[in-house]
Amino acid sequence: MGKVDILKLIKERRSVRKFQDKEVPMQTIKNSLEAARWAPSGLNNQPWRFMVKSKQEKDKLAQYTKFGQVVKEADKLILVFLDKKSSYNYQKDLMAIGACIQNMLLYVHSLGLGTCWLGEILNQAKEISRELQLPSQLEFVAAIALGVPAGEVKLTGRRLLKDLTLV
Ligand SMILES: Cc1cc2nc3c(=O)[nH]c(=O)nc-3n(C[C@H](O)[C@H](O)[C@H](O)COP(=O)(O)O)c2cc1C
Hints:
This protein has 167 residues and is α+β, with helices and mostly antiparallel strands.
């Protein structure tokens, strides 16, 4: 296997909010979840759970967020949950799920595909739980819009390392 420049990959990933009307194969989604599930977690408890939504089911969820247009344009919406039955420490479990999501975003980016991590949609978590008839053990923690990017992405910057590092 050739050397992968992971730092380059990390730095060039950006949130994608506009997508082409093209399908992402289910195998690619499976591989993305494969990347996700190999994240570290406290006690290796792997508290993440996923649901993949496409087509009408996905579009139905668009009404629950200000970013409905992103949801509609994306080919797939990956819902991410915390499984409360596997949880041992809420804070640590959420951090692990964050790591799991970042694994997924970077893997998808490495394929030339795009994602947008959607958090605002959590404001309507209750309504979504009802809509999806989720079992009570699943807490909705994030949605990831995924698809083939269209056009330019917004090139966000970052704070300087020296301003983030305390002496
Ligand atoms: C926890 C979290 C929640 C986010 N929620 C949203 C969201 O609801 N809508 C959106 O368009 N972007 C959302 N984003 C994407 C951020 O706006 C984006 O990562 C940030 O502005 C940096 O831009 P970049 O990802 O292009 O580097 C979210 C990101 C994170 C990590």
